[in-house]
């Protein structure tokens, strides 16, 4: 239908939510993307995903139409209670830094081959790109785009095959520097980490001047500094490339910052959530705050709690210590499991096993991960990090169940056909 086609276009369209991609001729770029990709596996796959999202939105809109004034009122009261509770947990005493390298793989390749510096280049292959340098971004060439499309957008694009050993080695060097500032820093990927600067800043107060010449983090100016991890991540993207953004540690500054923030800029709110929220008229975090009652009726508890934290500018202020970051898991393989009730009861069983193991070791965990392998052997993991540590089967299941339901919904109306589940 027309509807599908339009929706499809929106998914395939250039995603310019990336540094270095402001002010591009979207219409021209989108036309080339559509023409080039038609009929490819990439296109078919995107089309399928798009249709699934559209179905989810249709379902959600039907659900919304049935909400009564009274339900909404009740939800509003609950939302206000939760907001008060969350507000009490606000901690503005930490200085959290998020570091993210500019065009990481591409930057390493340009370092080793300086001729590439002035050319549009990308790392990857004709079937998929991992990243592109800032010259290439001006043509609409970006990560997660097939190289054959990128070549149409930018015929002079140089595509360099990836060399992961090299990126890992550079990452190790960077991490050594991070450790000088926060020995407990949390790496997220090869080019990204969270650091708690609070203790370092205190020590710095008593540094003799000469020490500042040895400040090894100075060349890494791609920082975001804020009172919590959620905000720091947004901040590090603000002045890319090669810039910093500091968000002051006051409630007022945080709330102002969040008001204007598009939901898509928040880590954890991806393409799909953005589209669902847009369908409800929500594009910025201030809309999020206004619509919390409705959201609490349409989304899972974990999702709307996350939305609420975002709308209040709240995030984690505590970077878990390495030794606390132990993880524990259990999994089971079977021939095929496609019935929702059976999947949920297996999930419950796994949570019980896990809780028992954790009890033996006296462990608690803040991240619950669900691992699924379908009958085509495709593996997916879905994880959720909570504000508080959990340990009992009930607590773990409450989260795992939501993650599983989300996957079931993603697949629907087709059943989710599993051959392995773990958590
Ligand atoms: N990466 C990838 N596939 C993606 C996204 C990223 O393989 N879809 C890899 C290549 C990137 C690295 O991870 O260089 C870091 O990811 P970022 O999202 O931080 O992207 P860049 O560092 O390349 O660019 P930016 O300057 O926007 O941070
Ligand atoms: Mg990066």
UniProtKB/TrEMBL annotation:
Its cofactor is Mn(2+). GO terms for molecular function: damaged DNA binding; DNA-directed DNA polymerase activity; metal ion binding. Gene3D superfamilies: 1.10.150.810, 3.30.70.270, DNA polymerase, Y-family, little finger domain. Residues 40-92 form a coiled coil. Residues 96-270 form the UmuC domain. It catalyses: DNA(n) + a 2'-deoxyribonucleoside 5'-triphosphate = DNA(n+1) + diphosphate. InterPro entries: DNA/RNA_pol_sf, DNA_pol_Y-fam_lit_finger_sf, DNA_pol_Y-fam_little_finger, DNA_polymerase-Y, DNApol_IV, Rev_trsase/Diguanyl_cyclase, UmuC. It holds the Pfam family IMS. GO terms for biological process: DNA repair; DNA replication; error-prone translesion synthesis. Transmembrane segments: none annotated. GO terms for cellular component: nucleus. Its EC number is 2.7.7.7. It comes from the Eukaryota. DNA polymerase specifically involved in DNA repair. Plays an important role in translesion synthesis, where the normal high-fidelity DNA polymerases cannot proceed and DNA synthesis stalls. Depending on the context, it inserts the correct base, but causes frequent base transitions, transversions and frameshifts. Lacks 3'-5' proofreading exonuclease activity. Forms a Schiff base with 5'-deoxyribose phosphate at abasic sites, but does not have lyase activity. PANTHER family: DNA POLYMERASE KAPPA, DNA REPAIR POLYMERASE UMUC / TRANSFERASE FAMILY MEMBER. This is DNA polymerase kappa. It comes from Anabas testudineus (Climbing perch).
């Amino acid at each position: 239908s027309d509807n599908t086609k339009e929706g499809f276009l929106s998914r395939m369209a250039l995603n310019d939510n990336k540094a270095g991609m402001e002010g591009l001729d979207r219409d021209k770029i989108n036309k080339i993307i559509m023409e080039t990709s038609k009929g490819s596996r990439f296109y078919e796959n995107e089309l399928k995903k798009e249709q699934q999202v559209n179905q989810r939105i249709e379902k959600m809109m039907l659900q919304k139409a049935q909400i009564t004034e009274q339900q909404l009122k009740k939800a509003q009261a609950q939302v206000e209670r939760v907001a008060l509770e969350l507000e009490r947990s606000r901690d503005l005493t930490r200085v959290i830094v998020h570091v993210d390298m500019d065009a990481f793989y591409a930057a390493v390749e340009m370092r080793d081959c300086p001729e590439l510096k002035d050319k549009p280049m990308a790392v990857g292959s004709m079937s998929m790109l991992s990243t592109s340098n800032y010259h290439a971004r001006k043509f609409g060439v970006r990560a997660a785009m097939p190289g054959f499309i990128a070549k149409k957008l930018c015929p002079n694009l140089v595509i360099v095959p990836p060399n992961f050993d090299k990126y890992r080695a550079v990452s190790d060097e960077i991490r050594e520097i991070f450790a000088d500032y926060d020995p407990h820093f949390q790496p997220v990927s090869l080019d990204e980490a969270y650091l708690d600067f609070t203790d370092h800043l205190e020590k710095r107060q008593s540094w003799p001047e000469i020490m500042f010449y040895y400040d090894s983090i100075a060349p890494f100016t791609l920082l975001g500094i804020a009172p919590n991890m959620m905000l720091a991540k947004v901040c590090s993207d603000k002045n890319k490339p090669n810039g910093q953004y500091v968000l002051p540690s006051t409630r007022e500054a945080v709330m102002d910052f969040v008001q204007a923030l598009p939901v898509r800029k928040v880590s954890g709110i991806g393409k799909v959530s953005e589209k669902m929220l847009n369908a409800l008229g929500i594009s910025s975090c201030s809309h999020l705050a206004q619509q919390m009652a409705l959201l609490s009726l349409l989304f899972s508890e974990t999702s709307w709690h996350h939305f609420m934290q975002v709308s209040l500018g709240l995030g984690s202020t505590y970077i878990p210590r390495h030794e606390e970051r132990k993880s524990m898991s259990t999994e089971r393989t079977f021939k095929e499991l496609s019935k929702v009730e059976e999947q949920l009861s297996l999930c419950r069983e796994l949570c019980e096993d896990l809780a028992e193991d954790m009890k033996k070791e006296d462990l608690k965990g803040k991240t619950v991960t669900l691992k699924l392998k379908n009958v085509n052997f495709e593996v997916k993991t879905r994880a959720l990090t909570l504000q508080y540590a959990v340990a009992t089967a009930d607590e773990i299941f409450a989260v795992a169940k939501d993650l599983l339901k989300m996957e079931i919904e993603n697949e629907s109306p087709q059943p989710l056909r599993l051959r392995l589940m773990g958590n």
